[in-house]
Design a protein that fits this description.
The chain is an alpha+beta fold. It folds into two domains: about 130 residues, Gcn5-related N-acetyltransferase (GNAT) (Aminopeptidase, 3-Layer(aba) Sandwich), CATH 3.40.630; about 160 residues, Gcn5-related N-acetyltransferase (GNAT) (Aminopeptidase, 3-Layer(aba) Sandwich), CATH 3.40.630. It is built from ten helices and 15 strands. Strands 4-5-6-15-7-12-11-10-9-8 form a ten-stranded mixed β-sheet. A hairpin with a 2-residue loop joins strand 2 and strand 3.
Length: about 325
């Protein structure tokens, strides 16, 4: 017998939501409403709050589409039920999933598209939702692989990267962090040019969105560049969370690639990882729901000593 009740989040509960996220064992600042809501016009938010004895005990960042599918919020890289540090175990999660399924049926929701938080981001083991998904017969619809360095067991850069470091040491490369609006716009121009040239793609965020998010999360969203003769030729935007330094965007100019400017910049970010952080994550290198791996891109990331972290996605029919 479940003692959970589920209801839809309302904007008036933003402060409560953010307070819960800040104290959760499996949340990052991406679940803060100030991050989630910067693109609220693009998604029909249907985030859920699980209550027990009139107190919130779990949150689900979510949106809904016209086909009746409830999605782990599509504006976020990952999602899943956000859990408290204690007093919530696998038994609770099974009961919560039972209640969620009943609630979805009553609301006319046909399926749940669920993106669990990759394990490296949690401050304590939080795989209860994966177990509940399996118990309820969910299908894995996507599996991408990210390249991640475990700082506590880092084998170091490969021979090629070490050679590049030696060459860069003779050139007087300057590493700098920047945060002004003008510098962030300059970063976005470099990023846009790099993505268009190499992949025929555009950044997910506009320059103004990056500026806005940096203003809201200056301690978490940071920009670094490496310069030769005063000109930045490579830059990385990192998202710093409690356990992970994640490379959200990596870019370089043709001149920056010619002079290997990404190598000393990446080495700097690895060596200055924040206290408490264990992982340096370079992000995924996949297309088509993980069925295609960009082997060259992944090999480049692995050359710094990274190994694999999976990002999965599940579909649970109601």
């Amino acid at each position: 017998m479940s003692d959970f009740t589920i209801r839809t989040y309302t904007p008036a509960e933003a402060a409560m939501w953010n307070e819960f996220v800040a104290s959760a064992r499996n949340a990052t600042f991406l679940f803060d409403r100030r991050y989630m809501d910067y693109h609220a016009d693009r998604f029909a938010d249907r985030s859920l709050i699980a209550m027990r004895r009139d107190k919130p005990v779990a949150l689900l960042p979510a949106d809904i589409t016209d086909d009746g599918v409830l999605h782990s919020h599509r504006g976020l890289t990952y999602g899943g039920w956000v859990l408290p540090r204690r007093h919530f175990d696998a038994i609770d999660m099974l009961r919560l999933f039972d209640e969620m399924i009943q609630w979805c049926r009553a609301e006319g929701i046909s399926a749940i598209d669920y993106k669990p938080l990759p394990a490296i981001y949690a401050t304590a083991p939080s795989g209860e939702d994966l177990y509940a998904l399996w118990r309820h017969g969910a299908t894995c619809t996507e599996c991408n692989i990210s390249a991640t360095i475990d700082i506590t067991a880092n084998p170091g850069m490969d021979t090629l990267q070490r050679r590049k470091m030696s060459k860069c040491a003779l050139r007087g490369i300057e590493i700098r962090e920047f945060s002004s609006n003008g510098d962030i716009r300059g970063f976005h121009r470099l990023l846009s040019s790099c993505l268009e040239e190499r992949y025929g793609a555009t950044p997910v965020h506009s320059a103004e969105e990056l500026i806005l998010l940096h203003e809201r999360f200056a301690d978490h969203i940071r920009f670094f560049g490496s310069a030769l003769n005063g000109i930045i030729g490579a830059a990385i935007c990192v998202y710093d969370t409690a356990k992970v330094r994640h490379c959200q965007y990596i870019c370089s100019s043709p001149e920056g690639r010619k002079n290997d400017l990404l190598t000393p910049l990446t080495a700097h970010l690895i060596s200055t990882i924040l206290p408490g952080q264990r992982y340096m994550d370079f992000g995924t290198s996949n297309e088509h729901a993980g069925r295609v791996l960009n082997e060259g891109l992944y090999a480049y990331k692995a050359s710094y000593g990274a190994t694999g972290t999976v990002h999965t996605r599940y579909l649970l029919d109601i």
